[in-house]
Every structure is written in C-alpha cells, then in structure tokens.
Amino acid sequence: MTEADNSVGIVTAQLAVFDTPLPLLSGSLIGNWELKYETYGTLNRDKSNAVLVCHALSGHHHVAGRYTEDDAAPGWWDSMVGPGKPIDTRRFFVVGVNNLGGCHGSTGPSSLRPETGEPWGAAFPVVTVSDWVNAQALLADRLGIERWAAVIGGSLGGMQALQWTISYPARVGHALVIASAPKLSAQNIAFNDVARQAILSDPDFHGGDFYRHGTAPRRGLRLARMLGHITYLSDDGMGEKFGRMLRSGEYRFGYDVEFEIESYLRYQGDKFSDIFDANTYLLMTKALDYFDPAADAGHDLAAALSDVKASFLVASFTSDWRFSPARSRELVDALTRADRRVSYAEIESVHGHDAFLMLDPPYVALMRTYLDRVAQEVGA
Questions:
Q1: DSSP assignment, residue 38?
Q2: Can 213 be counted among the known catalytic residues?
Q3: Which residues are known binding-site members?
Q4: Which residues are annotated as a binding site for substrate?
Q5: Which of 320, 324, 328, 349 does the annotation list as catalytic?
Q6: Quick one: which residues bind substrate (predicted)?
C-alpha cells in the first residue's frame, strides 16, 4: 500500500456555528460561538462508528490528510488516521475539533467579538476541559452522533477523553487515554506557569490586547515553546539526536547558538511563535492546570469514576517524564477500584512525551489491536 493509498487524501475543514450561549465552568457565557472541525470516513447507517480525536495543547482540528496536493505536511496525526491505519477510516467516521479558545478557526481570543467588532483578547474567559467536552457534545448533537464508539486523545487530549466518560457516561463506548494523567503534578503546573510568565512579561503582550497594537508577544511565546519542547523530549532522545554537537565544530566563547540542540530549540520556538496565538497558549495551559475530576468527589478518583460506563485503554511511555507511567497507573488503579474495564500498556520508547505522536511499532500494534476490537463491536 502506497502513501497515497493509505491517506484520507484532500480534506476540507468545516465550521459549526452555535447561537445558543454556552455556559462555562467559570460562570461566564460564550454566545454566538463557532467550532472548526474535520471529518474523515463515512458515518454508518446507525451512526455507531463515530470516533472523536481530541487534540493536545498545540493541536487543532486538522488531524489527517492535506488541504492541497502541495501541502508540506499532512494533519498532525496522519500517521494514525486513514485507510488501513489503526484509526481506520474505512471502518470509522473520525471527527477532529479545534477546541473553544483555539486559534485555528474556532472562537477564541483572536476572534472578533460580536458586541464590539474587535478581537476578544484579554476579555475571552478561561475555559476548562469540561467546557471543551460540553462544546464537543453539542457538535456531536449537530452531527447526529448520540454515542462515540471511541474518544481518543494524547496528553491534554487524553484528559478530554477521560472527562467525556465522566460528563457523558452513556455517550462513550471506549476511551483511549494516551500519555496523559488524571491531574497535573506540582512540577507540571510550575512548568506551565514559567511558560505563561514568559508571555505575560513580554512588552508586546499589552495585557492580552496586543491585536489592537498590531503586534504579538513572539519573544515570550518563543520562550514558552522552547521550555515546553524540552519537557516533551527525553534526555536519552535528545542525547541520541543531538548529543553535544557543535554547529561550527569548536567553541565560539559567546552567547549565540553554538550547540545543535540550541539551534533546534530556537527553530521550534520561532516556528511556533509565527503560527500560534499567545492568548490561546495561556488558556490551554490553564485548562491543563485546572483539570482534576477527583476534586468534586472528595479527591477520590475512583469515586469520580463510579458512574463511568466506557471501557478504557490507558497507555504510557517509559521515557515520558512530563506525564510519567506512574500517572497513568494512578488512573488504572482508580478504574480498577471503581470496577471499570481497563487495559493498560507501558511502551518502551526513547521519544519522551512526544512518543504518542510517533510510530514506535509496539504502540502502533497496540492501537491497531484495540481499535480492531472496537470496530468489531460496532460492526464496522
């Protein structure tokens, strides 16, 4: 099978417009809001083969395929979604959504506010994982999907998959929670705050209303991405790829780029600051910080999961220190205590947290095997 054969091909993003205000956990309301989304595959007659793919912090709705033949790269999880791939679009109807507060077409801080005709900016309310799930549920209603065969996500996307099973237990058959956690550790919250401070302290931030100044806090966003990217990689992975290689082969005795790892991080930061919105970055990291479904159940995760009906696949990666295997085992333990159905895999990988985006053969085989079972259950 060639690359063209197992691609979803040329895709088109769609826009769902909602005129009913969406109440948020913060107490705010978002009115006249929109969600950008894409679909791949065909919804079967009884609408039982739908799969929702939830994105991580810097992700979006463009999960697979290309917009034109000339696109330099396909969607962010094209390796996993398509004909013959683990999330097989010959069997599943796959939906990808850009979350509320995003910067890729859904209503967010850079969107024009209907009341003022200017970007929301700092006035855009803080959103949470449960807010995203509620918005996604309204999109599912719009698409006529009463129940997802599976909800799948890595990292922050895995948190959404977990929240779906709690908020809408009857609407999820399977939840695939990959490289994720039931809540952030103090260290993770600390990393997020340092990243936010880099943005907030940028002179071009202007309190979040930088749009009206015709500028953007690119330096702060660049630093935030560089910091985040370090935490997504493993020490072994960075060592294997870059080691202590010098660009010129010798020390320059200055503070410009000398090591290859420095060049790589600056490239990643520069690229990200050109395509992502700083306010969205702040919102996404806050959603990560606030996620803690056990908080409303006396900090007993098993109790929070007591009404869950979905079956779970929980997967972690040995070199992921940002969302370590111990955090996945914490979720598995709570699901077991709640007498829920759960399978767990800890996968050898040198790719760190980014491993959920990679093609390590044991990971791909695991996803394929589990989703084959899901497809058989729904007759897909």
A1: E
A2: no
A3: 225, 354
A4: 225, 354
A5: 320
A6: 225, 354
- Ordered strands of the 33-40 beta sheet: 14-18, 33-40, 93-97, 50-54, 150-154, 174-178, 311-317, 342-347
Answer for the pair 55, 157: CB distance below 8 angstroms, yes or no: yes
Q: Which two tokens stand for residue 243?
A: 């080691």
Active site residue 61: no
Cα gap 147→104, rounded to integer Å: 26
- DSSP-derived letter for residue 319 is T
The whole-number pLDDT of residue 5 equals 63
Sign of the dihedral through C-alpha 270, 276, 277, 278:
negative
For residue range 1-11, what is the model confidence (pLDDT) as tens digits?
Answer: 344 468 999 99
97 contacts 156 by C-beta, under 8 angstroms: no
Amino acid identity of residue 304, one-letter, is A
* Integer Cα distance of 334 and 296 in angstroms: 15
- Cβ–Cβ under 8 Å, residues 366 and 176: no
What does pTM read for this prediction? 0.95
Q: Are strands 342-347 and 311-317 parallel, antiparallel or unpaired?
A: parallel
C-alpha closest to that of 163 among 149, 146, 183: 183
Q: How many residues does the chain have?
A: 380
The C-alpha atoms of residue 107 and residue 184 are separated, in whole angstroms, by 26
Cross-strand partners of 174: 311
Residue with tokens 């990808």: 96
> Mean pLDDT, to the nearest integer, of 259-276?
92
Q: Which of 96-100, 196-200, 266-270, 323-327 has the lowest mean pLDDT?
A: 266-270
Residue 320 designated active-site: yes
Do residues 137 and 171 lie in contact, with contact meaning Cβ atoms separated by under 8 Å?
yes
Active-site pick, 155, 273, 328, 349:
155
Distance of alpha carbon 149 from alpha carbon 50, whole angstroms: 6
Q: Compute CA distances 316 → 34, 80, 184, 292, 340, whole Å.
A: 33, 17, 15, 19, 19
**Distance from C-alpha of 111 to C-alpha of 285, rounded to nearest angstrom:** 19
